[in-house]
Design goal:
The chain has helices at 4-20, 24-27, 31-35, 47-52; strands spanning 61-72, 77-86, 93-102, 105-106, 109-110, 113-127, 130-143, 151-163, 168-179, 189-199, 202-211, 217-229, 232-243, 248-258, 262-273, 278-291. The chain is mainly β. It has one domain (4-291): monomeric porin ompg (Porin). The strands form two sheets. It has a 14-stranded antiparallel beta barrel.
Length: 297
């Protein structure tokens, strides 16, 4: 009986961690979307569209290469994202690679969890106000945590963006809607959001996301103010997120430096209730040809 008790404790702890740690829905996000409370499904462009809504790619016209790194202290996670996105043609798309490696502690032991994802996103503007998009991903997931079996396969996302006016967008998307192999790291989810620009330099957004397996909902919102100084821009972002499945609330924020040929962004999120997570991310972008954003008419 004595030998059985430690095993039960470890198994229970492992089960709890497996459900509480972030998964691919969270690991793919960059500093811009994190800073505004993950609320960019209605205005996702470039690398942001990969994780939130591929239908947002036609919202601008640019060729951009981006690389980013993030660190999450709660499970010693390193997050790496690299992408190339081109929205200057009739079928905007991205190629990307994402890596997430973490070392959650259980019973004084550091376990290993890693995810590799390769994929491509493509979108099309059906009419000036409506665009659709899809993402195809190949993943390989390895984990030493109990109830997290190794898995590899393909999974697919879909999305749509509606531009109600020049100032208001709606977005809806589904992640991992179909997978060739089930994995706890790639749960099915649907989400939607709205983005408004009351001023040319100010955007406000709100998003919600639901895991379809019953693990609760996630709600977030934020604001971005874009200050200008000559040929440079200084985006300042703030946001908040609540996850009722985890019972956690987070505050977030970030800052950036934008130029015609490059951009740098830093974002952070910290749990203020129901957890101790602190996540910090940074990315850098390099632009090729850039054109005026399309109108709604």
């Amino acid at each position: 009986m004595r030998s059985l008790i430690p095993g039960v404790i470890v198994a229970t702890a492992a089960f709890g961690v497996a459900n509480a740690e972030p998964d691919s829905l969270d690991d793919v996000l960059g500093p811009r979307e994190i800073a505004v409370g993950e609320a960019m499904r209605a205005g996702a462009t470039g690398a942001t569209a990969i994780g939130l809504n591929p239908a947002g790619l036609p919202l601008n016209r640019e060729l951009v290469f981006e690389g980013g790194y993030g660190y999450r202290a709660s499970d010693s996670a390193s997050l790496v994202n690299v992408s190339a996105c081109d929205s200057t043609n009739v079928a905007p798309g991205c190629f990307f690679y994402q890596y997430a490696g973490s070392n959650p502690e259980l019973g004084g032991m550091a376990l290993d969890r890693s995810t590799h994802v390769f994929g491509t996103s493509i979108s099309r503007q059906l009419v000036p106000r409506v665009s659709i998009g899809a993402t195809a991903k190949y993943f390989r997931f390895n984990s030493e945590v109990m109830d997290e079996p190794k898995a590899s396969g393909f999974t697919f996302d879909l999305g749509a963006t509606i531009r109600l006016t020049e100032l208001i967008n709606l977005g809806i998307s589904g992640q991992n809607l179909y997978s060739t192999e089930e994995s706890v790291q790639f749960p099915r989810a649907v989400g939607g959001g709205v983005l408004a620009r009351p001023l040319p330099t100010l955007s406000l957004s709100f998003d919600s996301r639901w895991k379809t397996d019953g693990d609760g909902a996630r709600f977030g919102g934020g604001a971005e103010w874009f200050a200008r100084a000559g040929s440079y821009g200084l985006p300042i972002r703030i946001g908040a997120v609540h996850d009722n499945g985890l019972g956690s609330t987070y505050i977030a924020g970030g800052i950036g430096l934008a130029h015609l040929k490059w951009g740098i962004d830093v974002g952070a999120r910290h749990a203020v209730d129901g957890g101790d997570e602190t996540l910090v991310l940074a990315s850098m972008r390099f632009y090729g040809p850039r054109m005026a954003a399309p109108g709604v008419e």
